[in-house]
Write a structure and sequence with these properties.
There is one protein chain. The strands form 3 sheets. The chain has a 4-stranded antiparallel beta sheet. It has a 3-stranded parallel beta sheet with strand order 1-2-7, with helices on both faces. It has a two-stranded parallel sheet with strand order 8-9. The chain contains 14 helices and 9 strands. It is α/β, with parallel strands linked by helices. The two termini are 14 Å apart.
């Protein structure tokens, strides 16, 4: 099972599941008691701009991932052999693996979102998606653009799909170089936080305090870290890699290959949307991939 991160949120998500499974609203109520506001109401009503703010999106997506996993298990879904998450989604995976409680994970994620939001002044940093170019060409363009600022590949999502992040001027320079190199598309994303770039090193280091205060355990189920494709082990290992994750690139291609190499024969995306399901299919079209974001898709996954 794989858990999506920031970017898969949308107003009205999980309403269908909540109608049939009380555990959805129970999970959101648990989150709301810690957040101090009604998360379910915000997710259902919006506005979308508010839900899209990093400090709201991160707790919301953690909650959505955990709620979906609880629905899966309540519906009689099998316990997964292996778990992974894309960026923030790793926290949902670690909760599912019982490596950390939902309450502790939420507390860490609230702090994570605050640190990431405040790490770079608004208008200074950003991210851009690059479609249709090999990794080496993207890395080369970023290296050239870095003469005027930071521009780095930060999400290796699938073959031919990479996200870059850094200073806006350097990103704009990189986009021109990428287009000249033959990229099918290279465009800025509507985000102000240059996630997973070296501009976030301060945020990652500052997150260590919140990670140290949280109680971690050895995961009961295997959780593959998306920074390197290697399973999390001891509590201190989890803390260290979650801190580095803030400013290190997401190696999603490597992560999916690692899951398959370790015996994974099918993948289910556990959370709103189907972004990861699509990426996994592009990484290896021979692995059956499903998603759970509605009653219909839940039933299809259960039947499989």
């Amino acid at each position: 099972m794989v858990f999506p991160g920031q970017g898969s949120q949308k107003v009205g998500m999980q309403a269908d599941l909540a109608e049939h499974y009380p555990v959805v609203k129970e999970t959101y109520a648990e989150a709301s008691s810690i957040l101090g506001y009604d998360l379910w109401a915000l997710v259902q009503v919006g506005p979308a701009e508010k839900l899209g703010e990093t400090e709201v999106t991160q707790p919301a997506m953690l909650t959505a991932g955990v709620a979906t996993y609880r629905v899966w298990r309540a519906a009689g879904g099998a316990e997964p052999e292996r778990l992974a998450g894309h960026s923030l989604g790793e926290y949902s995976a670690l909760v599912a693996a019982e490596a950390i409680s939902f309450a502790d994970a939420l507390t860490v994620v609230i702090r994570r979102s605050q640190l990431m939001q405040n790490a770079v002044p608004s208008g200074v940093g950003g991210m851009a998606a690059v479609i249709g170019l090999d990794d080496e060409s993207v890395i080369k363009a970023c290296d050239e653009a870095s003469l005027i600022g930071i521009a780095e590949p930060v999400n290796f999502n699938s073959p031919g799909q990479v996200v870059i992040a850094g200073h806006i001027d350097a990103l704009d320079r990189a986009i021109k170089l990428l287009e000249a190199a033959g990229a099918r598309r290279a465009l800025r994303l509507p985000v102000s936080v240059p996630s997973h770039s070296s501009l976030m090193i301060g945020a990652g280091e500052a997150l260590k305090e919140a990670l140290s205060a949280a109680e971690f355990r050895v995961p009961r189920l295997s959780v593959i870290a998306a920074t390197d494709g290697i399973a999390y082990k001891a509590p201190d290992d989890i803390r260290e890699r979650l801190a580095r994750q803030v400013y290190g690139p997401v190696q999603w291609v490597r992560t999916v290959h690692a899951m398959i190499a370790n015996g994974t024969t099918s993948i289910i995306e556990c959370g709103p949307g189907k972004v990861l399901a699509g990426l996994c299919r592009r990484i290896d079209k021979n692995i059956p991939t499903l998603f759970i974001d509605s009653i219909a898709s839940l039933n299809k996954a259960l039947q499989s």
